[in-house]
Amino acid sequence: MRAGYQPLPEPPGYTLDARHLRRYHEYSLVHPVKLIRCELQWSVMETPYSFPPLPVLERWRSNLATIALAGREIPVLRREATALVLAVHGAKHLWERLAWLADIAALMRQTVDWELVQAEAQILGVERLLGLSLYLAAELLDAPLPTKISWNSQPAIDQLAAQALDFLLREQIDYDAAPAARNLFLIGGLDRLHDRLLVSARFAPRLLQPWQLYRRHGLDPLRRMFNWQRSSGKPKVAIDERRAP
Q1: Positive or negative torsion for Cα 189, 193, 194, 197
Q2: Which of 19, 94, 99, 225 has the CB geometry, 3.0–4.6 Å to 182, for a possible disulfide?
Q3: Residue (of 23, 85, 86, 22) closest to 57 by Cα position
């Protein structure tokens, strides 16, 4: 704040309080002059499905690595933990940015204990999302696939990869439909049914709030429906002329 950054004027709100910390996973700031956006993140996913779980995050934080930046030693996650965070984050957004895959590809060209990463992914229920991230980075950016691991869910990974490639390589994206596509993709990519239900519960309330839909889209859905019925010549609701005044 002292550097001139201000809360980003968008949902989920502007007040960084205890409720915000419990409910959400990030807080966004923007510099009004430099137009630089800064996101303070303490998790990858919002409740009720939080990734990574708090005990795992505490374990990762107790075993950090360091990097040199601007003459200082900065604590960072180790590469094995970073691989899982990048895999889940990219899948959450349906891998809509090639830069996120470039981060995965960069890790694949470094020394990483991929057997340990896979074992952790199995415990956390994100093995398919990990395999997907490695497959996409190898397919699109020629990153070397780890040779010491194999996937029990290869058919599911292939299906997810086809969906991600279709979304990533589209010339135009329907941004109204994109959130639903991303949510369904993430739900289908998780290994465990329990986690899929938690993610579904996270998004279900948004589908049950007509006022929020109206605030975002106005009457446009109704207009589209009316125009479609009029152009089709077969309206769904017939007007009873006998009841007209």
Answers
A1: positive
A2: 94
A3: 85
Instruction: Give the DSSP per-residue string, 60-87.
Output: HHTT-EEEEETTEEEEE--HHHHHHHHH
Q: Which ranges of the chain would DSSP assign to H, the alpha helix?
A: 18-23, 54-61, 79-92, 98-108, 114-124, 127-141, 154-168, 178-189, 193-207, 210-217, 220-232
Over the stretch 186-242, which tens digit does the pLDDT of each residue have?
889 999 999 998 888 776 655 545 555 455 545 554 454 444 444 444 433 333 333
Measuring CA to CA, which residue among 11, 95, 96, 80 is closest to residue 46? 11
Rounded CA gap, 65 and 62, in Å?
A: 10
Long-range contacts of 52-55 (CB under 8 A, 24+ apart): 52/81, 52/84, 52/85, 52/124, 53/124
SS3 183: helix
DSSP-based three-state secondary structure for 35: coil
